[in-house]
């Protein structure tokens, strides 16, 4: 299977900030790779290098068969990019935004208008197509931005945190759009902070920390490294910890943890809902009162903490965050 994106040993620093530290990536044709990590991990810097917006200090990258450093114009002609913030002109209508992109790609006026109309229909924006984009909701602006990335029907798409800042309903809508693109054969590099997003969309996931890959695998493989699913029980009375621990021991696949406060127990399980049902029955039979009981899946923080030994550190845009546009500009 041909790799549509291949990066080897990418390094990029901004004075004392090491944004990329020998990053290797490979995305086979027709596959989705999710680059997973917290703010400051280097995801956006990697995207900027692969899309020719930044030159790496060292390393190499090939995108759609074209060398990023030797022929950046050739790469740009073969990719579609949707960044963290919707790149739309708020004074233009949705139709005019897409027409403008088409003209920039060299389409004639009639062809650009035809393509714009097709994409507005595909993304459910036809009714809003003649309205200024400043009147669009956040979800509509993100869809318009993604439509712009598809005007030239590129073989490679790069989506940098496409659902950050969206409400849950808009996020699900965007996932549906991305799944449609993937089913049509697109090769996709997706950066995200959300394990659920990577779980739903990606064939493979690379977790990065401080600009280097620290783990790779499917969502299930990564979650297995954190103990997979777990049952969490918050007891009404701390005195029942011993009895509750005995109930959980029957379903636990690993060590049962007693959290601070003395009344919350967490047990890794392999049986999912069956383990939860057994726990409920066991607690009822033992007469143990609970304040909360649930089956939890690993979060990004769980996976990241398990892999690195520390939690996410740099909030978005903070000083020293190598994925902050402000930081990069200040350090140039």
UniProtKB/TrEMBL annotation:
One of its GO terms (biological process) is daunorubicin transport. Belongs to the ABC transporter superfamily. Drug exporter-1 (DrugE1) (TC 3.A.1.105) family. PROSITE patterns: ABC_TRANSPORTER_1, ABC_TRANSPORTER_2. Its main location: membrane. Keywords: Antibiotic resistance, ATP-binding, Cell membrane, Membrane, Nucleotide-binding, Translocase, Transport. The keyword Acetylation does not apply. It is found in: Cell membrane. InterPro entries: AAA+_ATPase, ABC_transporter-like_ATP-bd, ABC_transporter-like_CS, ABC_transporter_ATP-binding, DrrA, P-loop_NTPase. It is a peripheral membrane protein. This is ATP-binding cassette domain-containing protein. The keyword Membrane applies. Residues 5-235 form the ABC transporter domain. Residues 310-332 are annotated as: Disordered. GO terms for cellular component: plasma membrane. It holds the Pfam family ABC_tran. It comes from the Bacteria. Residues 323-332 have a biased composition (Acidic residues). GO terms for molecular function: ATP binding; ATP hydrolysis activity.
